[in-house]
Amino acid sequence: MRNRDLLPRRTILRSAIAMGGLAVAAPVRAALPQFTPNQVMGPFYPVEKPLDQDADLTAISGKSGQAEGQVLHLMGRVLDSQGRPISGARIEIWQANTHGRYTHPADTNTTPLDPNFEGFGVQITDDEGRYRFKTIKPGAYPVGENWIRPPHIHFDVSGRTGRVLTQMYFENEPLNDLDRLLLSARNQQALIAKYQPPTGEMEPVSLAAVWNIMLPEV
């Protein structure tokens, strides 16, 4: 396993403490009153998972280029029904690139592919249930007449208490109020990540977002 396959735990800890929503002592129950809702997987889960599976989606092993778009540091915690952290949970994410296109043969969007962005990552939560990905903010894209999907990231999270297959959205996106999938969710706010100021270890022009996940009981 390469050194960057999982971001260093020390880096995760420092960033987590700096981000108020992730502090170990933070009252997670108040932030997560309900389980994270399931949402459809969608048609663009990778047909073949890339060999470069890690927590940094902004670069591909063996290539010198960087992914196009706004760098996004996405972090949070995986919790059980009592708000306790779940260590060892496996998180897979997949997403469109900054132009709103997936690296998938079924995506007929005519916007450009990004040769430096495969749009798939894997992370295992640490002892405090924390995860962190470095990626780019995905673009919106049309899925039919009068429907443009807002920026979102797909999540498949498996832990000892269960599994959730869902989608994460971003706060303050106008398209959220029109999205049929988001509007159909029982607890919409549980699907929306909150922005935080980037810490000193992050690029000054990057985005930082926090999203906690509560798994259902087995």
Characterise the protein shown here.
The chain has one domain: Aromatic compound dioxygenase (Protocatechuate 3,4-Dioxygenase, subunit A, Sandwich). The longest helix has 10 residues, at 9-18. It is mostly beta strands. The two termini are 31 Å apart. The protein is built from three helices and eleven strands, in the order ααββββββββαβββ. The strands form two sheets. Strands 1, 2, 3, 4, 7, 8, 9, 10 and 11 form a nine-stranded mixed β-sheet that branches. The protein is globular and about 45 Å long. The model is unreliable at 1-33 (pLDDT under 50).
Task: Give me the number of helical elements.
Answer: 3
The arrangement of helices and strands along the chain is HHEEEEEEEEHEEE
- Coarse structural class: mainly beta
* CATH architecture level-2 label: Sandwich
CATH class: Mainly Beta
Content of β-strand: 25-35%
* Helix share, percent: under 10%
CATH homology-level superfamily: Aromatic compound dioxygenase
- In round numbers, the mean pLDDT is 86
What count of domains describes the coordinates?
1
Short description:
The longest helix is centred in the N-terminal third of the chain and has 10 residues, at 9-18. By secondary structure, this protein is mainly β. The protein is built from three helices and eleven strands; from the N terminus they run H-H-E-E-E-E-E-E-E-E-H-E-E-E.
